[in-house]
């Protein structure tokens, strides 16, 4: 590599020409070598990758399968036989490192605390690939929290009993649509939106409307 400030050498010396062109465009301190390609995965490295992922992220069996399949597509495969990804994931789940039911409960609790209703919880569980059995307790929790969750959403958006003034017709329709998009049942959303500003909602009555 020529010294700083040295003139570029004759055209047949391609290495120096490449260096000179690079320096002219981006400066001598920013010339980088291209990253070396990653090695293809095999059984051992795939297992290590799976353990790294579950150690870093809360996940489900389906999400882990998708992640590992994507990594195999990106890096290629160098194992003696085809990757047994689902078998690997089931083995990891059996060890307790991946627990779909626990993930579902955590997701349901988090969404309910943020003011989202049962429909949004169900959507999140489907997106995570959680089956009906593993998601049952989480769905029950969302149902139990339906009224409180609706009030949390209304408080955050200043709707219904938390509004300053009753909404006009257009405002009411927008508020109702927002609550339905947040996963709340129509009757529950309607009862919350129609509550007088400053009133104290009857939690038991609202819970009945969520059924």
Main sheet summary: none
What is the overall number of helices? 11
Estimated helix fraction = 55-70%
- Structural class comes to mainly alpha
Low-confidence stretches: 4-24
Count the strands? Answer: 0
Overall residue-averaged pLDDT value: 88
Q: How do the helices and strands follow one another from N- to C-terminus?
A: HHHHHHHHHHH
Radius of gyration: 28 Å
Strand content: under 5%
Gap between N and C termini = 76 Å
Offer a few descriptive terms.
211 residues; 11 helices; mainly alpha; elongated
Tell me briefly what this model is:
This protein is mostly helical and 211 residues long.
Blueprint (SSEs and pairs):
Elements: H1 14-26, H2 43-56, H3 61-75, H4 85-94, H5 100-113, H6 118-127, H7 132-144, H8 146-157, H9 169-181, H10 186-193, H11 203-209
């Amino acid at each position: 590599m020529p010294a700083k400030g040295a003139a570029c050498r004759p055209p047949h010396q391609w290495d120096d020409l490449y260096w000179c062109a690079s320096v002219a465009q981006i400066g001598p301190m920013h010339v980088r070598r291209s990253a070396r390609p990653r090695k293809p995965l095999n059984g051992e490295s795939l297992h290590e990758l799976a353990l790294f992922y579950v150690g870093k992220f809360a996940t489900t069996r389906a999400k882990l399968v998708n992640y590992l399949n994507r990594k195999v597509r990106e890096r290629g495969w160098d194992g003696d036989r085809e990757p047994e990804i689902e078998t690997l994931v089931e083995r990891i789940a059996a060890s307790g490192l991946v627990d779909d039911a626990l993930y579902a409960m955590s997701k349901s609790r988090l969404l309910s605390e943020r003011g989202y209703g049962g429909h949004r919880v169900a959507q999140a569980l489907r997106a995570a690939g959680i089956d009906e059995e593993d998601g049952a307790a989480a769905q029950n929790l969302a149902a139990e929290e339906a009224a409180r969750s609706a009030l949390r959403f209304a408080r955050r958006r200043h709707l219904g009993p938390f509004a300053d003034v009753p909404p006009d017709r257009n405002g009411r329709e927008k508020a109702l649509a927002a609550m339905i998009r947040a996963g709340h049942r129509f009757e529950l959303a309607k009862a919350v939106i129609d509550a007088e500003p400053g009133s104290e909602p009857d939690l038991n009555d609202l819970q009945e409307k969520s059924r």
